[in-house]
Amino acid sequence: xxxxxxxxxxxxxxxxxxxxxxxxxxxxxxxxxxxxxxxxxxxxxxxxxxxxxxxxxxxxxxxxxxxxxxxxxxxxxxxxxxxxxxxxxxxxxxxxxxxxxxxxxxxxxxxxxxxxxxxxxxxxxxxxxxxxxxxxxxxxxxxxxxxxxxxxxxxxxxxxxxxxxxxxxxxxxxxxxxxxxxxxxxxxxxxxxxxxxxxxxxxxxxxxxxxxxxxxxxxxxxxxxxxxxxxxxxxxxxxxxxxxxxx
Amino acid sequence: xxxxxxxxxxxxxxxxxxxxxxxxxxxxxxxxxxxxxxxxxxxxxxxxxxxxxxxxxxxxxxxxxxxxxxxxxxxxxxxxxxxxxxxxxxxxxxxxxxxxxxxxxxxxxxxxxxxxxxxxxxxxxxxxxxxxxxxxxxxxxxxxxxxxxxxxxxxxxxxxxxxxxxxxxxxxxxxxxxxxxxxxxxxxxxxxxxxxxxxxxxxxxxxxxxxxxxxxxxxxxxxxxxxxxxxxxxxxxxxxxxxxxxxxxxxxxxxxxxxxxxxxxxxxxxxxxxxxxxxxxxxxxxxxxxxxxxxxxxxxxxxxxxxxxxxxxxxxxxxxxxxxxxxxxxxxxxxxxxxxxxxxxxxx
Lengths: 247, 348
Ligand SMILES: Nc1ncnc2c1ncn2[C@@H]1O[C@H](COP(=O)(O)OP(=O)(O)OP(=O)(O)O)[C@@H](O)[C@H]1O
Ligand SMILES: [Mg+2]
Known about the structure:
The complex is a heterodimer of chains A (247) and B (348).
Chain A: E1 3-14, E2 17-28, E3 32-36, H1 43-50, E4 58-63, E5 66-67, H2 73-79, E6 81-83, H3 96-101, H4 120-133, H5 148-161, E7 166-170, H6 178-194, E8 198-202, H7 206-212, E9 215-220, E10 223-228, H8 230-235, H9 237-244
Helix pairs in contact in A: 4-5
Chain B: H1 3-23, H2 28-50, H3 59-74, H4 80-85, H5 96-125, H6 130-150, E1 160-161, H7 169-194, H8 198-215, H9 220-246, E2 248-249, H10 251-255, H11 261-272, H12 279-297, H13 302-316, H14 320-328
Antiparallel strand pairs in B: 1-2
Helix pairs in contact in B: 2-7, 2-8, 2-9, 2-11, 2-12, 3-5, 3-6, 3-9, 5-9, 7-9, 8-9, 11-12, 11-14
The site of magnesium ion (MG) has 4 residues of chain A, from helix 1.
């Protein structure tokens, strides 16, 4: 399997806070990779570095073999590397269908297609994906009126609409009603399996990540603590001490 | 709006537009100015309402279009520098063909000139957000008026007399009225189309969460500049018409009236309901009527009255008239509301 994302010795600090220190990892094409770590261990910071949200202090980030650490957010997104936000972000005065339609891939968009009409095939796909995440019946509602959990699902659906090669999900199950989490895990797996989207998922919930990912990294205090298959990570004493022990 | 309501609205507007000047001949200039205000409010709303960027400087393009057209029109028969240096001593003597060629070319050039200027300015001001953007654009408009006042080629502070219309006063009034009405109609139908395209969705997305839009790969910088330049183009066209209609242009009161029309267009859009196609239109009508009546009835207090209305609007009535109607009568607008269902019921 190819490495889709390669992070090498990346460091990032905010003033005196070393949020990421010498982090190296790779995300393999086609599978679901997980990332765990206690609060403040630098997971979101690493996502932000990968998608170009802020410049990194040191190191290299490659996507499909190309250095992207100097590119800007929009350019990286148009390469097919997308993220969702821990603090869910949707276009909250627009209805769900409009949220979906404007989330189509911008990769091939040129000046004239900026003004293209709202084509039927885009609407069809929007409704299909809304149905996939279970929001079909809410499709004409203003998205800001949805519950927090539904907004998370919408944000996930918007990301799928974009047909990314890899999708970085920042705690997709946080704030979701526990009885609905299994359904979400199932959908993440199907997005990976049926739509071929490589997933890189930050997840607090140990049970979820063990169930979902085939490879897991664990951060602690901004450093890479361990990486391996979930079964090994679960038994790793350092992980238990740093992460599980803390809870 | 639902189809039948929309047709009704267009019928009423069409009647006002065509029969208004026929029955109220004495008010033809005021009605022409009303259409100009409709255009100002609706084009302001492209960035202000639909995209969430509250510009206080769109009047810049009105003045820019006016001056560009003046230069183009005069240069058809005269050396512009000599003409302006003579301070009115040279009287323009154009044939009918020269006049009409000049004015049509001038109007188009005014639109294009304003469009190009907005692209350059846009690259500078769209780095700013929120109140900084508002103040930045206000600064641009104020600076534009001051700057033009120092350029002798453009007549400096004493302005330029425009070529005189070759015909009698009534014919002249009708000519300029038709120009104002038609350009405003064109701008309205253009925006109506625009808001139904991907472009409309993109600028709404920028309004709701620009960083998200950027993270989804939308080229926000391009959209922002294009949105503004569309407003600038129409403001340039109408500015060119207004300059000719008034007959004499100067920087502060006529071309770049920042504290009056520059602010009125924002007030009209807010009053009618920003971010909607019809809000700014309605806002312009209500505002213009209030303004004209207070001007005659409350002489000396008109500014206080207008200011009070703006304050009430902003403090108590932010959604504007159309926004408020959408809340109480969603079915008039064909909006689906489904807020009663318990959100957590949906299967996830
Ligand atoms: N923009 C910022 N400015 C200053 N400090 C920041 C910034 N972003 C993150 N930090 C700090 O960097 C550290 C890592 O934060 P980060 O958000 O990456 O953690 P996390 O692993 O995502 O935590 P959580 O599980 O709570 O989401 C924290 O100490 C945080 O306060
Ligand atoms: Mg985080």
